[in-house]
Write a structure and sequence with these properties.
The chain is mainly α and 234 residues long. It has two domains: 73 residues, Orthogonal Bundle (Arc Repressor Mutant, subunit A), CATH 1.10.10.60; 153 residues, Tetracycline Repressor, domain 2, CATH 1.10.357. It contains twelve helices and no strands.
């Protein structure tokens, strides 16, 4: 008998009643997510998860074969199924916009999620396929081909993932003052005239509400993507 892959293990996991005592897959995954949310994905190890659940590392292996399988379960659980309000209404643009914001909210709640994408490639767990189903249903009323619907979904998803990735980089550079320092020391109008104009206009300056700025930046990109799809359909 061949050993199942981590992805197969996620698809074949059967949820059941949660006992009052004892270790379950749900508890293992929940403990791992709590650690990752608080300290990052790098802090997750079988020993740390075992300690958090109050069991031995060997007990974990009755539920997950290895850390890769655990992280894939975490990836699936972090996204979860789409909320009921994403049911398609027939308005492709409004439905797709809601899908994008809902997806963004799930990923922002678990910033470590984006790190898992480089390990496992294109997400293909049950939760991810349910999100893909919702996105394709939103685009169903359009004249896009099935391939174009998938490509449009991937484009919007890249924008969603990019929000979390860029914000993580932005936070890291702000923490050490690198960005402002480089701008102040090395920018000159002869080499970087366009960048200097943008800096002078305050285009790189943070506003009084970083969360609102971040939402505005995401909305700008999403609107331009959907404008492009609308123009293409026309």
């Amino acid at each position: 008998m061949t050993e199942s892959t981590p992805l197969e293990a996620v698809w074949t996991a059967v949820p059941g009643a949660v006992p009052r005592t004892g270790l379950t897959l749900d508890r293992v995954v929940a403990a791992a997510i709590e650690i990752a949310d608080a300290e990052g994905l790098g802090a997750v190890s079988m020993s740390r998860v075992a300690k958090r659940t109050g069991f031995t590392p060997m007990a974990l292996y009755r539920h997950v074969a290895n850390k890769d399988e655990l992280v894939l379960h975490m990836q699936d659980r972090a996204m979860g199924p789409p909320p009921p309000e994403l049911a398609a209404t027939g308005d492709w643009r409004a439905d797709t916009e809601r899908w994008a914001w809902a997806s963004l909210a799930r990923i922002r709640a678990h910033p470590w999620y984006v790190q898992t994408l480089s390990t496992f490639g294109a997400p293909a767990t049950p939760s991810h396929l349910l999100w893909a189903e919702a996105a394709l249903q939103a685009l169903a009323p359009t004249a896009l081909t099935e391939s174009e619907k998938v490509e449009t979904t991937l484009l919007i998803n890249a924008h969603v993932v990019g929000d979390t990735t860029f914000h993580a980089i932005e936070t890291a550079t702000e923490a050490v003052g690198v960005y402002d320092d480089v701008l102040a020391r090395f920018l000159d109008e002869e080499r970087f005239p366009a960048v200097v104009r943008a800096v002078a206009a305050g285009a790189f300056a943070a506003g009084p509400d970083p969360a609102a700025d971040r939402d505005a930046l995401f909305r700008y990109g999403l609107d331009r993507i959907l404008d492009g799809v609308a123009a293409y359909l026309a």
